[in-house]
Specification:
The protein has 558 residues and is of the alpha/beta class. The protein contains 16 helices and 25 strands. The protein has three domains: 225 residues, ANL, N-terminal domain (Rossmann fold), CATH 3.40.50; 167 residues, ANL, N-terminal domain (Rossmann fold); 121 residues, GMP Synthetase, Chain A, domain 3. The strands form six sheets. Strands 2-1-11-10-12-13-14-15 form an eight-stranded mixed beta sheet. Helix 5 packs across helix 6. The longest helix has 24 residues.
Length: 558
């Protein structure tokens, strides 16, 4: 049995391959899966392949790809050799990719066929090989004669040190320039065990992976953790739209899924709520708490079946969950759970399992991890969340100054998040410290709380609340497509001309949005305290730009 004494992949991978040899490990839905034995063989062949390129321990290798079984195979091969994996988010554009290559000094790029076009304008003279991840074909490089052989037996033994740099993660984040977060094998393997103590994973569990593997949330909890425990991970060939996701869930019936708030918030706003409000009787019942609970319970049973009917852990992390959506999940008896963490913490710091959630709370700190509130407010108990433990990063790559800013001399990591503990030691997240707005009288304004209120107003998709020139400003993105359909429906019986002329429909949509914006501002300002009232509401025509975990890149809108 694996123990936490084994904190090196060169020890763990042979163990899991032997122990779970015949279990399914990795595969695309509706395709043949790699067993653990086959995964081990592939990892070994990739190690031999990399050795032919004279890749050594400490060298950097980029993985720039959508999720696929070969992503995990290459990742584990790199870890077993002591080579530093540099997972790059598929959403990164050419400019961001160029910065990562330059800063990391990567020697090899593994790229999925779907992203090869992004390399066209990248200067990569220093890169020794570009390899297609889908089939290990060498696309460019000094050693184009090297050919991948799946049957190669690689016998060299590597003993990478558990506390050395193993993974270099460049997160676009929400606050500007990417930083290279340095994680060790000890960091991520420890955190996988910490997560297992929150929700035990069984070898019979099926994971459906929908978040990018290049994000540490999916990497540690959705790849390393299930592989440690002999579970099976399924991937999608196409982006996880409803038409792709629903048949996949019906097929594999996952026990575990990891997601971000926006995914379940969209399900609630675009599917659950419209269905309830479509009929007069259910719309009326929705207004009263006891009957609303019953409606949510019935909707939840249907939703649970849509997810395959076996789900035991629907993990939500990466941002704060909307209170109204969480109330639906609670009343629906849906097996959701909240986790909190950052890339710098590998990522999990606090969380609970689906059987013990509390409304708008995250959970207790994970095992072997200390969490404290630094300089708590004497009245509210709120302050910056600091944490310490074996899951805390080594630092920022080539940036000692930035590392010193966030790490204290005695080992505490300053998260930059605001939080508070309740009497039972459960952590709640209040928002980002950098987003906090201090009012004219020194009062704290939490923009995330106002945004939550705005986002539950009809036809609103998303919003950002910030301070501009001393004014509290709300930028709001309305659902134009939804409004256009509504306008067309309203005008169809009145005038065929309006239905035919796009410009008239468009004009009517603009008028409707302006009316909604004015109504929304009044709606907010009657529901928040005086200091949190919105002084200016701006309509955001395009969707806000987002990070991999679908958080809005707020710094772009300051």
């Amino acid at each position: 049995m694996l123990t936490q004494d084994q904190l090196s992949f060169s020890t763990i991978i042979p163990d899991v391959v032997s122990k779970y040899a015949n279990n399914k490990a990795l595969g695309f839905v509706d395709e043949e899966y790699l067993t653990y034995a086959q995964m081990g063989k592939s990892i070994n062949a990739v190690m031999a392949f990399l050795d032919a390129f004279e890749i050594k321990a400490g060298d950097k290798v980029v993985i720039y790809s959508q999720n696929m079984p070969n992503w995990g195979v290459v990742y584990f091969a790199l870890q077993c050799m002591g080579v530093v994996a540099v997972p790059v988010l598929p959403e990164f554009n050419t400019h961001e990719l160029q910065n990562v290559l330059n800063h990391s000094e990567a020697k090899i790029i593994f790229v999925s066929k779907s992203l090869e076009y992004k390399l066209a304008d990248v200067k990569n003279d220093f890169v020794e090989a570009i390899i297609r991840l889908d089939n290990f074909e060498v696309l460019e490089g000094k050693k184009q004669s090297v050919v991948f052989n799946k049957d190669t037996q690689f016998t060299s033994a590597f003993k990478p040190e558990e506390d050395k740099l193993a993974i270099l993660l460049y997160t676009s984040g929400t606050t500007g320039n990417s930083k290279g977060v340095m994680l060790s094998q000890k960091n991520v393997i420890t955190n996988a065990f910490q997560a297992d103590s929150v929700q035990e994973i069984l070898e019979s569990d099926n994971f459906l992976s929908v978040l990018p593997l290049s994000h540490t949330y999916e990497n540690t909890l959705g790849l390393i953790l299930p592989i440690l425990k002999g579970a099976c991970i399924s991937y999608l060939r196409k982006p996880p739209t409803a038409s792709v996701l629903v048949p996949a869930m019906q097929k594999i019936k996952p026990e575990v899924m990891l997601t971000v708030p926006m995914v379940i918030e969209k399900v609630y706003k675009n599917s659950i709520l419209p269905t309830i409000q479509k009929k007069a009787i259910t719309s009326t019942l929705h207004k009263f708490k006891p009957t609303r609970k019953l409606l949510y319970y019935l909707a939840g049973k249907k939703l649970y079946q849509t997810f395959g009917g076996r789900l035991k852990f629907f993990g939500i992390g990466g941002a704060k969950l909307d209170p109204q959506v969480e109330q639906f999940l609670r009343d629906a008896k849906f097996p959701y759970a909240i986790g909190y963490g950052l890339t710098e913490t590998s990522p999990l710091v606090a969380g609970s399992n689906a059987s013990m959630t509390k409304f708008q709370a995250i959970g207790p700190e994970v095992s072997q991890c200390e969490v404290k509130i630094n300089k708590p407010d004497p009245v509210t108990g709120e302050g910056e969340i600091w944490t310490m433990g074996p899951n805390i990063m080594l630092g920022y790559y080539k940036n000692e100054e930035k590392t010193r800013e966030v790490m204290t001399e005695d080992g505490w990591f300053k998260t930059g998040d605001l939080g508070v503990f309740d009497k039972s030691g459960w952590l709640s997240h209040k928002g980002r410290l950098k987003n906090l707005i201090v009012g004219s009288n020194g009062e704290n304004i939490y923009p995330e709380e106002i945004e939550s209120l705005i986002n539950n107003f009809r036809h609103v998709v998303e919003s950002v609340v910030l301070e501009k020139k001393g004014k509290l400003v709300a930028m709001v993105h309305f659902n134009r497509e939804e409004l256009e359909l509504k306008v067309r429906e309203m005008t169809r019986n009145l005038s065929h001309k309006v239905d035919e002329k796009m410009e008239e429909v468009s004009q009517k949509v603009e008028e409707t949005i302006n009316e909604l914006a004015a109504e929304l501002q009044q709606y907010i300002n009657t529901r928040v305290n005086k200091i949190s009232r919105i002084q200016l509401l701006l309509v955001q025509a395009e969707p806000f730009q987002k990070t991999a975990t679908l958080k809005i890149k707020r710094y772009l809108y300051y």
